[in-house]
From TrEMBL:
This is PHD-type domain-containing protein. PANTHER family: PROTEIN CBG24663, ZINC FINGER PHD-TYPE DOMAIN-CONTAINING PROTEIN. Residues 3-58 form the PHD-type domain. Residues 300-319 are annotated as: Disordered. One of its GO terms (molecular function) is zinc ion binding. It comes from Aphis craccivora (Cowpea aphid). Signal peptide: none annotated. Keywords: Metal-binding, Zinc, Zinc-finger.
């Protein structure tokens, strides 16, 4: 086994040689090398707190150094906490930015939802009016025996919604050309000419389809059905076309334009006109037909005894 060397003479310290160990650095020394005159340092146990000269001359840390080290340690700790705080603040800032974006998105969504609710409210109001109107149209105005069910009204509302973009034009001459494409081109050109004369004019691009309906006759042209892009276009044409007939061109004198109506509407209108004819035959005068929300009503003109103005009011069939 290799023995440790003496830190002073660098010779091995044999087991039988007196030696001593430094309490501070733990190095082993020959007793004679440490103090040749001393006989009390034969073994480390004789002086367990002995310190060698090397350790004795080492500078001891002062209180100032200790305080400085503590301050540096605390500063390092503070810096570490600051870095963690910066990371936390950056995370909070990112979260706040993301939250702000979400709030803006939710604000836009709520605004859009509000507009949708407003639109649905208007649609609901329109549907309510349509349901009431169709309920009266399905039930014959001259018959009280039939009461329409909700399914009848729903079907009528749906069908009328589909027909709301259609027009029926009567009196448009048919082309003698045998080519289908030529006849279609003739009809579209005729309709485009009518629409261009309206105020405001209706662009031909709003016409989706135009075709004839009914059986061919030698005495009169078939009806011409026009499908447009929107209900608003139909409303505009139906409203402005009568103004064109005040002083119409010769080729438009026999032309009429009406909305496309359901079978129930057509039956209702026929019965109202039949009632009007019957009542006139019985001697009633100053009666005519006027439409209220698309529903035909027989109205009678009455005189205001105070100012002499003529007024019109709906009237019912006399028994």
């Amino acid at each position: 086994m290799v023995r440790p060397n003496c830190e002073l003479c660098s010779e091995p310290v044999q087991r039988e040689q007196p030696s001593i160990s430094c309490h501070s650095c733990k190095n082993l020394f020959h007793s004679n090398c440490v103090n040749p005159l001393s006989q009390n340092v034969s073994s480390p146990s004789n002086n367990p707190s002995w310190i060698c000269k090397v350790c004795l001359i080492k500078p001891k840390p002062s209180d100032t150094d200790d305080k400085l080290n503590r301050i540096l340690s605390e500063l390092q700790s503070i810096k570490s906490h600051q870095l963690k705080s910066d990371d936390l603040l950056n995370g909070i800032s990112s979260s706040m930015a993301a939250l702000n974006d979400k709030v803006l998105q939710q604000g836009k969504y709520i605004s859009s939802l509000g507009q949708s609710v407003t639109s649905l409210g208007k649609q609901l109001s329109t549907v309510t009016i349509d349901v009431k109107s169709h309920g009266q149209l399905i039930a014959s105005p001259t018959t009280t025996e039939f009461t329409p069910s909700l399914n009848d009204i729903a079907r009528e509302v749906q069908l009328r919604s589909l027909l709301a973009v259609n027009l029926i034009i009567r009196g448009v001459p048919e082309s003698p050309n045998k080519s289908i494409s030529e006849r279609i081109s003739h009809d579209k050109k005729f309709v485009s000419d009518i629409f261009s004369k309206l105020d405001p004019p209706v662009p031909v691009e709003l016409i989706l389809k135009a075709y004839r309906i009914g059986k061919t006759s030698d005495t009169k042209p078939r009806l011409l059905k026009i499908i447009l892009t929107s209900r608003e276009a139909v409303d505009s044409i139906v409203t402005t076309f009568p103004k064109l007939l005040i002083n119409p061109p010769d080729h438009l004198r026999s032309v009429s334009i009406t909305r496309d109506r359901t079978q129930s509407e057509r039956q209702s209108i026929r019965e109202v006109y039949q009632e009007l004819s019957t009542r006139r035959e019985r001697g009633e005068s100053n009666i005519s037909i006027r439409y209220y929300n698309g529903i035909p009503k027989i109205i009678t003109a009455t005189s205001d005894s105070k100012n002499g103005n003529h007024q019109q009011r709906p009237t019912t069939k006399k028994s």
